[in-house]
């Protein structure tokens, strides 16, 4: 087994217990208050309400993270595990860095060697050594449910039954994602299977968003692309509570220090660590600057607290002196929902901050531009010094859009070395499903 080491042993972790038998809003907000008072730099929170079912004014995660960002603290939170349903996103507030889960470049597989030397490849983890010989295969449907230890030993599927048996050729038919059907043909003699130890194989398709990872957009804030980034969240080696059942079964009294887990809760800490890494090199950067750097790299879309406040006022119909629509926030991505049968005409004002050396960036539009027309003014940004801010406006025009339609492209600023990419999405809401699958920025 490889040695697990801390990458940054000088990092300080402060842990707050929020949930007992349940999770209550008052405890969530109390944890935020304590973290802010303790002066933490980044808050990592793998919690949320299912399907993003709360408005901002009732969501303790949105409220707590709003207090945190007012004090210069970035909150990183999980997108949720109710995907791939449309608008299943949790933690959609624009001041939260919302993290989806993606696959990684390796998979665990189990192999079963049949008597005729054929091999069945399955998905799972078997840490036990490979069996030295083939073991008897028992079809559980045709035996009793009484089981003795003597009969259990050396049987692939143990049942209290011995007798004449015919070997079968078998295969599995996937009925749906949670049900398989066993098909057997051609009875032979003495069915046996040899179980091999799990192997790690390459996953050439990675990274891609996991099916369980919640999708956007939010039904409360549909002009913001969420999630913001994806990170490894499938089959992750994670620290595990010694008092928790590793299998999830109450009867399982085993104790382990580590477990293989999947979920956006596994992806979230990856991004938190990356945010803390950036913060260690740029302690003066704002939460939105760190967030933008992770989403786009290179230049930074910096969002002020006042912009977030004006957006909240706009969404809640509060009595504020100024309001701002979500699409007008200086956000690293651009999205707008349009009405069916109405010609597209939208503008996105943005401001970029140069955090590197002097350079000149030229804009380009990548992707399908056959249905939308894009204009960026100006189309060149010349940064003569560090921290210089420059404004530009993206104008999108197009013909009338039908039901369940999405058009997208990418805005790319490049100086020949750095590429700062921002997705642009124009869509209609009706009956849409999974449209944001490929629109989140990947964090690899």
What would your notes on this structure say?
β20 (406-414) and β21 form a beta hairpin. The protein has helices spanning 25-38, 60-70, 149-152, 264-281, 287-296, 305-316; strands at residues 42-45, 74-78, 96-102, 106-114, 119-123, 135-136, 166-176, 179-189, 192-195, 199-202, 229-232, 236-239, 258-261, 334-337, 344-353, 359-367, 372-377, 380-383, 389-398, 406-414, 419-427, 441-442. The chain is built from six helices and 22 strands. The protein has 444 residues and is of the alpha+beta class. It folds into two domains: 25-104 and 206-442, Rossmann fold (3-Layer(aba) Sandwich); 106-202, no CATH class.
Q: Can you identify the CATH class of the largest domain?
A: Alpha Beta
Mean pLDDT: 83
Alpha carbon gap, first and last residue: 24 Å
Shape: globular
Based on DSSP secondary structure assignment, what is the total number of beta strands?
22
Approximate strand percentage: 25-35%
Summed up, the domain count is 2
- Known CATH architecture of the largest domain: 3-Layer(aba) Sandwich
Into which percent range does the helicity of residues fall?
10-25%
SS summary, helix count: 6
The low-confidence runs, each spanning 5 or more residues with pLDDT under 50, are: 149-185, 431-444
């Amino acid at each position: 087994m490889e040695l697990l080491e801390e990458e940054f042993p000088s990092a300080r972790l402060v842990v707050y217990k929020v949930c007992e038998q349940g999770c209550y809003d008052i405890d969530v907000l109390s944890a935020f208050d304590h973290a802010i008072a303790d002066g933490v730099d980044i808050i990592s929170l793998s919690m949320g309400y299912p399907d993003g079912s709360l408005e901002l004014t009732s969501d303790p995660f949105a409220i707590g993270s709003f207090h945190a960002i007012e004090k210069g603290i970035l909150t990183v939170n999980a997108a949720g595990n109710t995907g791939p349903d449309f608008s299943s996103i949790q933690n959609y507030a624009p001041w939260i860095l919302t993290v989806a889960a993606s696959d990684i470049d390796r998979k665990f597989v189990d192999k079963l060697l049949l008597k005729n030397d054929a091999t069945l490849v399955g998905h799972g983890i078997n840490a036990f050594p490979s069996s030295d010989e083939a073991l008897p295969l028992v079809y559980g449907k045709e035996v009793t449910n009484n089981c003795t230890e003597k009969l259990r030993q050396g049987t692939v599927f143990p049942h209290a039954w011995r007798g004449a048996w015919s070997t079968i050729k078998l295969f599995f038919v996937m009925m749906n994602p949670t049900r398989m059907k066993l098909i057997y043909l051609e009875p032979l003699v003495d069915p046996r299977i040899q179980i091999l130890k799990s192997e790690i194989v390459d996953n050439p398709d990675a990274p891609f968003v996991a099916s369980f990872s919640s999708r956007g957009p939010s039904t409360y804030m549909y002009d913001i692309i969420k999630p913001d980034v994806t990170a490894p969240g499938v089959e992750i080696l994670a620290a595990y509570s010694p008092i928790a059942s590793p299998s999830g079964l109450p009867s399982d009294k085993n104790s382990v220090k580590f477990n293989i887990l999947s979920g956006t809760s596994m992806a979230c800490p990856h991004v938190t660590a990356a945010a803390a890494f950036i913060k260690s090199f740029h302690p003066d950067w704002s939460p939105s600057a760190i967030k933008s750097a992770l989403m786009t790299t290179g230049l930074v879309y910096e969002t002020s607290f006042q912009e977030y406040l004006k957006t909240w006022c706009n969404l809640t119909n509060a009595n504020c002196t100024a309001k701002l629509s979500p699409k007008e926030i200086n956000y690293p991505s651009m999205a707008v929902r349009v009405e069916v049968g109405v010609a597209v005409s939208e503008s996105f004002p943005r401001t970029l901050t140069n955090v590197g050396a002097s350079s000149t960036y030229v804009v380009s539009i990548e992707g399908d531009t056959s249905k939308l027309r894009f204009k960026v003014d100006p189309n060149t940004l010349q940064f003569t010094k560090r921290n210089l801010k420059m404004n530009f406006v993206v104008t999108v025009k197009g013909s009338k859009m039908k039901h369940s339609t999405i058009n997208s492209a990418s805005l790319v600023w490049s100086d020949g070395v750095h590429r700062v990419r921002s997705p642009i999405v124009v869509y209609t809401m009706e009956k849409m499903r999974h449209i944001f699958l490929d629109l989140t920025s990947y964090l690899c």
